[in-house]
């Protein structure tokens, strides 16, 4: 198992997301370290992109703020190098196919390996079209985190069988963003996944309350939260650290309460 498996060693993982460079790269570094101190087990770092089609308004606006602040892919790699001087917490990029191919897949994944990244999530890369990226990622020891959506249906087993690091179970149809209710039968999807693989399954999209985290923690191996953390950063900017700490700590504790 890759280093990403360490995120699940306590039984349930809390996975936090933030956009690199929002509001500034120095603050992203501070907020990554804050999340780890608060109990996060794995951190997703969003590479800002002008057309993040899987994201709702909250993360779209974070991407725009980061791009307007001048954040570029090489800056994000330098951020990772800085983080790696302080911690070995598992780190995963979230980005899109366009930036990877513009950078060059082999060059991109070579830099991931060089800087100490562990995995990548590419929401607009279909399972059937993962070949070129998967080969480049494998050559450099980077896990491609597969996403399984409620619409995956008869493709769930195929996607799960090639899963690396962890499987990202999408809780709801649509884009990212906080939701008051998760209506998808997640247990049914997770049961199918567990039938074909031992790779951990974590649930994201829409989770933002401790009640939701506890419920998801009862059926999945991990809880993923993005928009709620990005909202805190949007609200408090340079002073978001203590608010991020309190929120992540509460969500991690709730996730752990899901252990039966």
Describe this structure in words.
The chain has helices at residues 25-38, 57-68, 73-84, 97-103, 105-115, 131-139, 156-161, 186-196, 210-217, 227-236, 241-256; strands spanning 13-19, 42-46, 91-94, 119-121, 143-145, 147-148, 167-170, 201-204, 222-225. The chain is globular and about 45 Å long. It has 260 residues and is α/β, with parallel strands linked by helices. Helix content is 45%, strand content 14%. The protein has a nine-stranded parallel sheet with strand order 5-4-3-2-1-9-8-7-6. Helix 9 links the parallel strand 8 (201-204) and strand 9.
Write a compact overview of the structure shown.
45% of the residues lie in helices and 14% in strands.
First-to-last CA distance: 24 Å
Taking all residues together, what is the mean pLDDT?
Answer: 91
* Strand composition percent: 5-15%
User: What is the string of helix and strand elements?
Assistant: EHEHHEHHEHEEHEHEHEHH
Q: What kind of sheet is the major sheet? A: 9 strands, parallel
- The number of distinct helices, counting runs of at least 4 residues, comes to 11
Let me know the number of strands: 9
Helix fraction?
Answer: 40-55%
What is the rounded Rg? 17 Å
List low-confidence stretches. Answer: 173-183
Taking strands numbered 1, 2, ... along the chain, how are they ordered across the largest sheet? 5-4-3-2-1-9-8-7-6
Structural class: alpha/beta
Q: What is the overall shape?
A: globular
Key attributes of the depicted protein:
260 residues, alpha/beta, nine-stranded parallel β-sheet, 9 strands, RibuloseP-bd_barrel, EC 4.2.1.20, Trp_synthase_alpha_AS
């Amino acid at each position: 198992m890759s280093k990403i498996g360490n995120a699940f060693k306590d039984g349930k993982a809390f996975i936090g997301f933030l956009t690199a460079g929002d509001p500034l790269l120095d603050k992203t570094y501070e907020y990554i370290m804050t999340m780890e101190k608060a109990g996060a087990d794995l951190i997703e770092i969003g590479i800002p992109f002008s057309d993040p089609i899987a994201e709702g308004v909250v993360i779209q606006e974070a991407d725009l703020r980061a791009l307007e602040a001048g954040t570029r892919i090489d800056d994000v790699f330098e951020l990772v190098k800085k983080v790696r001087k302080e911690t070995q917490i598992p780190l995963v990029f979230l980005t899109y196919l366009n930036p990877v191919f513009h950078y060059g897949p082999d060059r991109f994944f070579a830099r991931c390996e060089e800087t100490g990244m562990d995995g990548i999530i590419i929401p607009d890369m279909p399972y059937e079209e993962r070949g070129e990226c998967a080969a480049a990622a494998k050559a450099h020891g980077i896990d491609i985190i597969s996403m399984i959506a409620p619409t995956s249906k008869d493709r769930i087993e195929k996607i799960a069988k090639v899963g690396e690091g962890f499987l990202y179970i999408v809780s709801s149809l649509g884009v990212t963003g906080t939701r008051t209710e998760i209506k998808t039968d997640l247990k049914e999807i997770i049961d199918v996944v567990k039938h074909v693989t031992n790779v951990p399954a974590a649930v994201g999209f829409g989770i933002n309350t401790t009640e939701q985290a506890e419920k998801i923690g009862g059926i999945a191996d991990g809880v993923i939260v993005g928009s709620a953390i990005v909202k805190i950063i949007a609200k408090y900017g340079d002073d978001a650290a203590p608010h991020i700490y309190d929120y992540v700590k509460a969500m991690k504790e709730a996730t752990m309460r899901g252990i039966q």
